Amino acid sequence: YTEAWDADKTSIHVMPDTPTILLAKANAANVSHKLYVQAWEDAKKKGYDMRADAIPIKSAKASRDIASDYKYKEMHEKQKGHYIGCRTAKEDPKLSWAARAMLLQNDRIYRKAYHDSKAQIHIPVDAMSVQAAKECQTMVSDVDYRHYLHQWTCLPDQNDVIHARKAYDLQSDNVYKSDLEWLRGIGWVTEGSVDVVKAKKAQELLNERLYRTRPDKMKFTSITDMPDVVQAKINALQLSDV
Question: What share of the chain is helix, strand, coil (3-state, %, to 5)?
Fold first, then answer.
């Protein structure tokens, strides 16, 4: 039954320029998502150059500033005129609250009661703390602590006085080092000594100028025909205002 139909299906040929085929192709093009976004994809592949002084950028910045200023002053605009009608500042609850907060934060008013009462303190003379302070003052007093002994007067030619002077001279630092005064100022260090060489080597190791060479001291010439340099020149010409 279906053998004849199956044979005819493979032999049917429709011309490509018939109205039905053309209509089907037009409908397929209209509903095709790939063709719908083809122009956008081509535009994306070309890239874009958005400058800071472009008109859309300036318009966006101006719109942002206008919106920001509006949002910043929105609460202020809503509260305008709400305080009209108070005869005095004390009748306004917000102003009264602000004045109260200012009084609490005022340091002079905060300490006024203390300054008024600090000079009205009366301490009994025979209080235990006062007596203890007096005893401590007597103990640490330099006048009561030191009792100078009698100043004895000795003859200069007594044997004990002569012996004490000799002992003081032997113990004196000036007399002890008087024989070394001729050595002062004549110090000398050998040029090739170990300490001098070690100090020079340490100075060379710590010298920043000898340790590294600054980039501005190095001679460098850029190659003008490098691919990145040529591409940069081409881009500069394309982006040039002229």
Answer: 65, 0, 35
